[in-house]
Amino acid sequence: MDSHIDNAKLTLKKNGKSFYWAGKFLSEEYINRAAELYSFCRALDDIADSGDPSSLKCLNDIKLNLNNNSYLGIEDIYSVKYPKFFNPFSKKAAVDLIDGLILDQDSILFKNESELIRYSYHVAGTVGLMMCDALKCENENAKLFAIDLGIAMQLTNIARDVLEDAKMGRRYLPSCWIDNISPEEIVLAVKKNDKKKYDKISQGIKKLLILADKYYISGTMGFRFLSFKTRMAISIASGVYRQIGVQLKSNNYNWYNGRQVTSTSTKVKITLIKIMEEVFKRKVIKDHQSELHKFVKELI
Question: SS3 for 171?
Fold first, then answer.
């Protein structure tokens, strides 16, 4: 076994618990390719979140090398291992991903839904596109739905990490949803037990998760382009990740008492439900809703 693949799988097991859990349904070839992709994205994310003054230069250097097709020469410098399956399409998506991570190098204070969706495309919709290549899904229509699943999971991620992100000077919730509450005010609200700001942020999270559900519904429509076992794995992974939002909702959007964690018993329950759905549920076939890409259509 390639040591790079071994290390990539360990990274996935440690940090990508939802997908690692679902990956048991993938063939060895596909879980290896998915792990390579996860490890690559994780390395970029670690650079972006390191707080090192050189992070922006690192990201720009990696972007330049990708654009110049000379990416192999920098893997030792920045500890970035590029997936062997990368093709021009994957590289373009990787460049778009880096553009999103470059945004994170400044304070994030989104004003509206457009900025939120564009960012979510950059840092997660692109991963959906690269995952299509990892899973050898070449249908162009499938890629539209893969973008939506990535966006949905990123919106869930934002809902989970409101306080953690605020401590880093980032507020992804659009200001027009929450009366322009700043990251500093979010952190202070917890220290002062400010119920008014608690409620306002909770309302924003509720709106965020309603929006995420629209993208999850669209994302699941793309499962039909995958083989049965692969479809099962992606369905389970998305279901487990979506559960974070379900738990936030059931806890009245309580964002200030720590991150939501999906228990093993809940993962087992979701897995069984998704197996039943994929085996017995009648599939609904619909065209992609272009409205979902109105803010990102020029990027795709």
Answer: strand
